[in-house]
Amino acid sequence: MTSQRSALRSSLLRRLGPQLGPTDGDEAFDPHILLAVRIHRAAGLNCRSGDGEGDGWRRYFVDYFPEGRNSAEDADWLWSEWRTRLLKHESPRGITHGKRSAHWQSLPEGGFVVDLESMWSDFRHSVNAFVARDRPAAVEGRPGALARTGLDG
To answer: b vs e for 58-93, b when ≥16 Cβ sit within 10 Å of the residue's Cβ?
Structure first.
């Protein structure tokens, strides 16, 4: 991995994953916010010319998240019911932490549970895949993600 790609990976993943105990539910809320912001940033780096933010988010999930958790429908639900409600209303649906077995399990009212630690793992997977596949050269008329971050030297 080039030093620029390593720097991009580090900037997306830094300070994720503080150790939380079973009684740290309130403390887990802020890391959910940070994670949503980091995913949004990575999705923005993956946007194509003409993509809206939601389109870029969806494309990032479909292209880079682990198989089985990367459908356009999952991405759309996460956009509206996790990310938007978390960042704008501080009332996301279906969040937990320390319950990996609950991750991506269906909610009765639709959607699914987002376990913080499991989502960190999914995001790490996506960042590794994104950094490995990103090209600094123009892709479909847009600068590569490395060029847009200033990390391309």
So the answer is: bbbbeebbeeebbeeebbebbbebbbebbeeeeebb
Question: Tokens 């080039």, residue?
Answer: 2
- Domain tally for the chain? 1
DSSP 151: -
Q: Does residue 42 lie in a domain region?
A: yes
| pLDDT at 152 exceeding the cut of 60 | no
Regarding predicted confidence, which is higher, 151 or 12? 12
CA–CA–CA angle 35, 38, 44 (5° rounding):
140
DSSP secondary structure of 93-107: SSEESS-GGGTTPBP
Residues 133/145, Cβ–Cβ less than 8 Å: no
- Is 109 inside a domain boundary? no
Check: pTM over 0.85? Answer yes or no. Answer: no
Q: What are the start-end ranges of the H helices in the chain? A: 3-13, 25-45, 53-64, 72-77, 116-133, 145-149
